[in-house]
Amino acid sequence: MVTKYERKFFFIPFAVQLQLMNDNNCPNIGICRLVTTTGFLGDEDRRRSFIETYCTDGEEKWSACKRYIVKNKLGFCPDFVLPDTDLTLDQIIDKFDEIID
Ligand code: SF4
Question: Which residue range forms the structural domain that includes residue 94?
Answer without folding.
Answer: 4-100
